[in-house]
């Protein structure tokens, strides 16, 4: 009588315990269940969870941005704290990750004023508050509170995010693109990463489902595809043309995957590029949209660096804008745009705010995305508020506008200078070539390593670029990520280095890096 | 030459594009790839993502707490806004979800002061701030900022969370349990839900891996198990003994699952119970620990309601404390404790803070959990700070202690009164029996529905308890979740109702509910 549960639960319950068990039953001969720890009952039993018994997808996934070089860096940092002066440098410079505020970038004052006020609304109508906060921050906090049911910033929101904030974001997208945006297409998330996971979870059924990803790529994509059991179908960016994205390469890799029985479901494009820093041209974007349309692929557009463009001849265009400008609407193409509060000039990584704009899916599929979002209830409200602020910053005439503009412009123009200085410095090194950082927060130089260095890496059982990065860290305290963490053409070696150290530290970075590289080449020159 | 990438990426890349494709190749005859939308190339192609082509696990998962009754409630709320007076009630009362602040519960002032100050540190040393914030909130904000490298609350933290905050949490656990806690065992997360997903992801390899879950259960568990492709192995709580958890039932269901070839990997226990509200006795907890130890199961202890105990004869004990008090250490048993800032007296659902304390796993497995955490970089810093605050609230002698204590006690004693009033009201209804709400935030009454109502539900193609819940909503504006969303013994019907409406609304809830129920029984009495 108690064997089956009723109602909603029972439908899968019955499946798992009757239909499923039937399936198991017919195949139990090959199951090693009988010698698994859980069926023994000895008293002194080892913990049943070992590397051999965990989900192999977890074991398989890699995330080099916080990989072993970073673990080494953390160890060295502790050493520095415990024994100052014991290493040839006095601080660790984390150039491994796009984490601006960890390297001293200050948050935008207006944004922080608003979220502080929303976190503690009782001070909003106190007189002292006028002296501490700008008038438009106070006004904006009231506006936002009025958009939240019951002004309850401590309540779970709608699983897509607070409706009023989504209205603001949609208006911001519309102002940016010149095409309408629907607040019901917006899903607010704890940064862009969970949004990417949600789309992978939706699209990947089995390892026969493929996702076209750039190589080099940001390893969130490879990790997410592995964790969801799909297949990464690589397409190579062309280093020789400034990390160009060629349609012929997409086509070739798509055909190749198809011939192997893989159903390619989506194309990931990161624009501006991570780790490669290129900004796609409008023409190129149109070709990409056309390709996705022709092949029926979902276009997963990672647009988190949309504010980070440093060259006057390039401009960011969202893929949704491009597709709308080509006359393609909801019925024609599925485009998902990812945005985050962690990047841009705001760099609010710790706040974990972001959204995805999901267009070109049927109402029934969107409902499924909503359902998955609802299992996690909602994203954090502070992050939601911040996402609305970055899409709707102070405007000309607002009290905070001038200081906001100065802060923003100060950060972006400094980033542009830092990118150029580091790029020039890298290009001046023997055997190093580095493409222009048109956008994003990274340089991805190629290092032509001497044969002797490659042999030494082999002997040390590590990839040559990881060998280089480890030596660089040990000698200078500078943390970079080996190119092998992002993927690269075999036989080529790179590293990713952020442009984020504060400007007054750049000369030291350049001289330390230059000195190290010279010594390295001296030591290993063939 | 460009076919394979090198380094870390290549290891799985090669697998996916050579080894994997080989596997595909030998089985392509049965693949329907050739007629999938992506391989056609017609110009006017429909969007390729349909219910038929998305991940079936997404389709299969259910989450009733935000299911169709809630969708109906949102529609009615809009109707009320647009045409006030058009419905037989003037507000929707969301008793479907443990979301205290959405129903008017106020946040704890001290907590909000500290997070506001951490959001906008420049005001910390302004004189006006002394007039707006309590002295110990200012001091605590400084302490926390000093624990954050570079005082950067906008930077990604360590992927397990800021070390200083984990120290505070570990100290709080130690003070609660009387046994040591290691800060390196703490993983800070965006609420408890992502922590549960992480453990399911780690433990579930295939559908042959089972997780023992209580029935009734909180549907996060069923949803997460479905999404990760495992099998939910149910064990039934005994309604007749106040939702007792019997070891004989665990043993029976475990054996049953084993006999079907399922490897049971973990036992989920929710204490205090959700949706059932019982608080386990210490003896019972010891038996559960012994059972997990004997069977080599990971004990997944959902302890998010640890502060919500309303009866003097029961007390919360963490499962880690129980196992340590039995003499079991790291080597003997794997226990994961989930905690959240969303529940307790704080109810900070929108802040998405929480942690899991992971004990009894080898260093190598813990490294894998860290790796998965690192793919998402870190949880939101505000939530991290709040998690440290709830585990280390003001102490006797602190300036805020009295107001903190009054707020906390006010909320908890009111919840206890509300629980009792609602429990009594439910038990006074014809054909309704309701167990004691010893803890958590819910009542889970059983409704003995007349045959005629069950027939009417059948005719309306809905489960009888969903039929009842829908009628209740339409008549009174009260939103509850049908028992079928949590699982129940077949042929029995329940609903889950929170105890969270503010105390001045409870009389109206009781009278509306009573009146509705009488009318319903009149209408359907056999």
TrEMBL record, chains A, B:
Domain Aminotransferase class I/classII large: 148-510
InterPro entries linked to this entry: ALAT1/2-like, Aminotransferase_I/II_large, PyrdxlP-dep_Trfase, PyrdxlP-dep_Trfase_major, PyrdxlP-dep_Trfase_small
GO MF term (any one): pyridoxal phosphate binding
EC class: transferase
GO terms, biological process: L-alanine catabolic process
Cofactor section: pyridoxal 5'-phosphate
Entry EC no(s): 2.6.1.2
Keyword list, A-Z: Aminotransferase, Pyridoxal phosphate, Transferase
UniProt keyword annotation of Nucleus present: no
Transmembrane domains' residue ranges: none
Source taxon at top rank: Eukaryota
Positions of the UniProt region annotated as Disordered: 28-47
Biased composition (Low complexity): 28-42
Pathway the protein takes part in: Photosynthesis; C4 acid pathway; Amino-acid degradation; L-alanine degradation via transaminase pathway; pyruvate from L-alanine: step 1/1
tRNA-binding found in the keyword field: no
One Pfam family hit: Aminotran_1_2
Family: Belongs to the class-I pyridoxal-phosphate-dependent aminotransferase family. Alanine aminotransferase subfamily.
Quaternary structure and partners: Homodimer.
PANTHER family, alphabetized: ALANINE AMINOTRANSFERASE, ALANINE TRANSAMINASE
Name of the featured protein: alanine transaminase
């Amino acid at each position: 009588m108690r064997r089956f549960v009723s109602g909603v639960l029972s439908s899968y319950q019955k499946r798992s315990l009757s239909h499923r068990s039937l399936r198991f039953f017919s195949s139990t001969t090959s199951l090693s269940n009988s010698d698994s720890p859980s069926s023994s009952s000895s008293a002194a039993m080892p913990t049943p969870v070992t590397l051999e018994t965990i989900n192999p997808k977890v074991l398989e996934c890699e995330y080099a941005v916080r990989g072993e070089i970073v673990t080494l860096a953390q160890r060295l940092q502790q050493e520095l704290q415990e024994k100052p002066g014991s290493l040839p440098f006095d601080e660790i410079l984390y150039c491994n990750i796009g984490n601006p505020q960890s390297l001293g970038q200050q948050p935008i004052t207006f944004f922080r004023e608003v979220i502080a006020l929303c976190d503690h609304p009782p001070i909003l109508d106190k007189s002292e508050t006028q002296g501490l906060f700008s008038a438009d921050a106070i006004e904006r906090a009231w506006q936002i509170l009025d958009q939240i049911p019951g002004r309850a910033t401590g309540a779970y929101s709608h699983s897509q995010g607070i409706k009023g904030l989504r209205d603001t974001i949609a208006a911001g997208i519309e102002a940016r693109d010149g095409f309408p945006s629907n607040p019901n297409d917006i899903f607010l998330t704890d940064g862009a990463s969970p949004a990417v996971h949600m789309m992978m979870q939706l699209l990947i059924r089995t390892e026969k489902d493929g996702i076209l990803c750039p190589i080099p790529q940001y390893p969130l994509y490879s990790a997410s595809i592995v964790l969801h059991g799909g297949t990464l179908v690589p397409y190579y960016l062309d280093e020789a043309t400034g990390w160009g994205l060629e349609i012929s390469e997409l086509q070739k890799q798509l055909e190749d995957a198809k011939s192997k029985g893989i159903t390619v479901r989506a194309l990931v494009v990161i624009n501006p590029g991570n780790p490669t820093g290129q900004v796609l041209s409008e023409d190129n974007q149109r070709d990409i949209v056309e390709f996705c349309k022709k092949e029926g692929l979902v276009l997963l557009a990672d647009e988190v660096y949309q504010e980070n463009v440093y060259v006057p001849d390039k401009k960011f265009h969202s893929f949704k804008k491009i597709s709308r400008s080509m006359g393609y609407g909801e019925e024609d193409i599925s485009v998902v745009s990812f945005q985050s509060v962690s990047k841009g000039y705001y760099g609010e990584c710790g706040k974990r705010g972001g959204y995805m704009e999901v267009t070109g899916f049927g109402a029934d599929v969107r409902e499924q995305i909503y359902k998955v979002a609802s299992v996690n209830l909602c994203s954090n409200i502070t992050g939601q508020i911040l996402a609305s602020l970055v899409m709707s910053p102070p405007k000309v005439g607002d009290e905070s506008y001038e200081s906001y503009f100065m802060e923003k412009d100060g950060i972006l123009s400094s980033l542009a200078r830092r990118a150029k200085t580091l790029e020039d410095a890298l290009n001046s090194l023997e055997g190093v070539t580095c493409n222009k950082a048109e956008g994003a927060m990274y340089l991805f130089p190629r290092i032509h390593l001497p044969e002797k260095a490659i042999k030494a890496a082999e002997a040390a059982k590590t990839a040559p670029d990881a060998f280089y990065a480890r030596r660089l860290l040990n000698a200078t305290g500078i943390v970079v990520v080996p190119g092998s963490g992002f993927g690269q053409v075999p036989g080529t070696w790179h590293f990713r280095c952020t442009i984020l150290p504060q400007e007054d530290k750049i000369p030291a970075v350049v001289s330390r890096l230059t000195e190290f590289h010279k010594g390295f080449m001296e030591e290993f020159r063939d």
